[in-house]
Specification:
This protein is an alpha/beta fold. Helices cover 41% and strands 18% of the residues. The chain has helices spanning 10-25, 45-57, 72-77, 81-86, 110-135, 163-180, 189-196, 198-201, 204-210, 219-233, 254-257, 269-285, 299-306, 328-339, 353-362, 377-384, 394-397, 399-413, 419-425, 440-449, 462-470, 519-533, 555-559, and strands at residues 32-40, 60-66, 90-94, 139-142, 184-187, 240-243, 290-296, 320-324, 346-349, 428-433, 474-483, 486-499, 502-510, 538-543, 562-566, 572-577, 588-591. The strands form 3 sheets. The protein has an 8-stranded mixed beta sheet with strand order 15-16-14-13-12-11-10-17, sandwiched between helices. A 5-stranded parallel beta sheet has the order 2-1-3-4-5, sandwiched between helices. It has a 4-stranded parallel beta sheet with strand order 8-7-6-9. The chain starts with 9 loop residues before the first helix and ends with a strand.
């Protein structure tokens, strides 16, 4: 819903919140259901109201538990039975500088201030660890916004007795904990409050009258920022950019103005703005965001524009370049098909409002932010949080190279008339084995990102995955695929729970970038081998339909399983005996952990 995308009108959202929610719930979208516990150091009800809207807009239907006013510590350390029964999927701790127990005064020594700081931090660390041990779920914690006054003036930031200095040091301790702790995330209200305007944000009348830690008009912005973290944790990020060229990546029309006439570089303020936007886009590529072009242009002109010596982007930075005179919605659908991703994983960036409207009307779920002026382009993409980073693995660094290698594979496929000959020509090798610590982060990330080739759509937090890894109740497999074009990284994960001589499959996922490569058969072969080693006689598979995983509706039938039940909404159960099973993969060489 465009009203809930940045830049949004907070006053409009506050006024229309009930009708917005009714519209969202009536749109027929199948959403991920999650339970979120909010532990507040101030009034949180309005935060939850707007967080709910932004999550619904991102495909998450949340049920909330809220602590009583300022009872965050008590709920965390001494949870009620109601809270324990709630079993949250995520805990959000809403504390602000109003909840700091004590601040230094000018009479204190440096050692006294350091001791005070350590005690304050330890209170929070103890709380985080208690939550992790109790609920085994992700935790989001606010950092601290700066104070709205400075007793020591400008020296407040540098003197150890200054409140600004104290809060900065406390924030740094939070960051160090986040850096070393899986499943712990910082909601950066220090940045959001500064961006909004600290004076307005911290208006003390809202605290004194309502115990709001910020002004009412800032609450939607706060909730929007928080929602970006939540949707990223639960795998609702976008994956790719489809970028227009003329007046989007450079000023002017390359077909009319020529390469020499477009604005990009350092010569003028407008040219520099386009250069900065290109540089920003290139930095997104380094995070693993897929870059594509969707432009009404002659291909030769598009390439010439991207080869402009003053530009930051080059043709090789893009996995797919659709520069033609086809409708842009058609080009985006073709791009999604070629990348094996869903169209709603794409952000369409175009300065033309008519093109944006057509694409959004024709492809539900595609984001097309308002690009009204080049000076605002970076802020618009950045603040929308399409690519919010909560987990970052080595595979993310290599993702563009992986997709580029996929394009090379597709080009080679066209030279073969027999598909099996093509697969053998790829010279594929897979590492398929039990989980090892070095890949746990990527395995967890894959469970939260894979939506299409995912039979149960079960999601795992880092803590839950570590429990599976350390338990003897499971058979676990990860699959890493390499071929002559490159290393695809960890692309498949299988988890089954043992019940005497039956293995109940809790998870079967695979990255769509290796579809139709027989990797699923290689995983099945290894799974059957492990079952035989551990006395498992029957494998039982489950398929739970979602709006996105129809492609694996009959995966178990393809594997040779027999369907034993199906309910009215399409949930199916399948079984296969491991006796008599014969190897299915004949094109991938498989090895184990080294």
């Amino acid at each position: 819903m465009k009203e809930l995308e940045y830049p949004f009108d907070s006053e409009y959202i506050i006024k229309k919140r009930k009708s917005i929610k009714r519209t969202l719930l009536a749109d027929g979208t199948k959403r991920l259901k999650k339970k979120i516990a909010v532990f507040g150091g101030s009034t949180t009800n309005d935060i939850v109201v707007y967080l709910d809207l932004f999550l619904l807009n991102n495909g998450i239907e949340a049920e909330f538990y809220q602590s009583e006013y300022a009872q965050y510590w008590q709920d965390a350390m001494f949870p009620s039975q109601e809270l324990l029964d709630f079993k949250p999927d995520l805990v959000f701790i809403h504390t602000t500088n109003r909840n700091v127990s004590a601040y230094p005064d000018t009479s204190m020594s440096k050692d006294e201030v350091n001791s005070m700081l350590e005690n304050e931090y330890k209170k929070f660390e103890q709380m985080w660890q208690k939550i992790a041990d109790t609920y085994h779920c992700p935790v989001i914690q606010n950092n601290f916004e700066m104070p709205f006054y400075r007793i020591m003036g400008n020296k407040d930031c540098s003197d150890y007795r200054g409140r600004s200095n104290y809060l900065t040091r406390l924030n740094n301790k939070f960051y160090e904990y986040a850096d070393k702790t899986q499943g712990f995330y910082i909601n950066d209200i220090n940045f959001i409050s500064a961006s909004y305007g600290l004076k307005a944000w911290s208006d003390p009348s809202y605290w004194n009258m309502y115990k709001y830690a910020m002004c009412v008009d800032a609450i939607p912005e706060f909730s929007f920022n928080l929602a970006n973290i939540v949707k990223s944790v639960f795998g609702r990020n976008k994956k790719a950019l489809a970028l227009d060229l003329d007046n989007t990546l450079w000023g002017g029309v390359v077909g009319d103005d020529g390469v020499d006439g477009i604005q990009i570089g350092q010569e003028t303020g407008v040219a520099q703005s386009y250069y900065e936007f290109q540089s920003y886009i290139k930095s997104l590529k380094s995070l693993g965001i897929i870059l594509t072009v969707c432009s009404k242009n002659d291909h030769e002109n598009a390439i010439a524009g991207l080869e402009h010596p003053e530009g930051a982007l080059r043709p090789d930075d893009f996995i797919i370049i659709k520069a033609n005179w086809e409708n842009k919605d058609r080009n985006i659908i073709e791009t999604a098909n070629e990348l094996n991703i869903l169209p709603d994983s794409i952000v369409f960036v175009d300065d033309n409002p008519a093109e944006r409207a057509i694409v959004q009307a024709q492809i539900p779920g595609v984001s097309a932010p308002v690009m009204d002026s080049v000076e605002n382009y970076i802020t618009t993409i950045d603040r929308n949080g399409y690519f919010e980073v909560t987990n970052f693995s080595d595979d993310d660094l290599k993702r563009n190279e992986m997709y580029k290698a996929n394009a090379q594979r597709a080009a080679q496929q066209s030279a073969f008339t027999d598909y099996n000959d093509y697969l053998r020509s790829l010279e594929m090798t897979a590492v398929i084995d039990d989980f090892i610590p070095v890949y746990l982060q990527r395995i967890t990330q894959l469970t939260n990102k894979s939506n299409q080739f995912n039979v149960t759509t079960k999601r795992y937090t880092a803590t839950e995955m570590e429990e599976v890894f350390n338990s003897s109740e499971y058979i676990r497999l990860y699959g890493k695929l390499i071929d002559k074009f490159g290393d695809n990284g960890v692309v498949s994960v299988v988890i089954g729970k043992k019940d005497n001589d039956i293995l109940n499959m809790e998870l079967w996922i695979m990255s769509c970038r290796v579809l139709k490569r027989d990797m699923e058969l290689a995983m099945l072969d290894k799974l059957v081998e492990r079952c035989r080693e551990q006395g498992i006689k029957t494998i039982r598979g489950y398929y739970y339909p979602t709006a996105k995983n129809n492609m694996v509706r009959e995966l178990y039938k393809f594997f040779g399983f027999e369907k034993i039940s199906e309910d009215e909404v399409g949930n199916t159960v399948w079984e296969m005996s491991v006796d008599g099973y014969e190897q299915r993969n004949h094109v991938i060489s498989v090895e184990g952990n080294k």
